[in-house]
Every structure is written in structure tokens, then in C-alpha cells.
Amino acid sequence: MKKIGIIFLGLLSLLYLLNPTAGIFEIIPDSIPLIGNLDEAAAVTILLMCLKYFGFELPDLFRRDKKNDEEIIIK
Length: 75
Hints:
Layout: H1 2-18, H2 38-53, H3 58-61, H4 66-74
Helix pairs in contact: 1-2
């Protein structure tokens, strides 16, 4: 049951970020200075936490392995 809730929360945050209604579906309007983009930042954070729960850690995709670097230097 917990996994279903996390999947639902992840899909909801992804849908909010994709925003298929061209800005009609907004919690905080982007035109408000300083706090206008906080809802998108929260949606990104929720999405990353949901992906991390299932083992997909996006920052690890861009990290270079030291082992591969050492092999390249040796060759």
C-alpha cells in the first residue's frame, strides 16, 4: 500500500511539472516575486525522493567512477 502511495505522489508531482494545462493548474502563481517558483521546487523534490525510494538516484547518473578513470590512465 505504501508503494502505491509513493507511485501516486511521484506521478502527481511529474504531472504538475509537465503542466499540461499551460499554467492554469498552479498552486502558487509564478508571477509572485521570490516565492513564485517554490511549488515547482517542491514538486521536483518530491519526485526525486520518490525515485530514490525505488532505487533511481539521478545524481549518481552523472558521477564518474574512479575505477573507470584509473583503467583509462593505465591503458
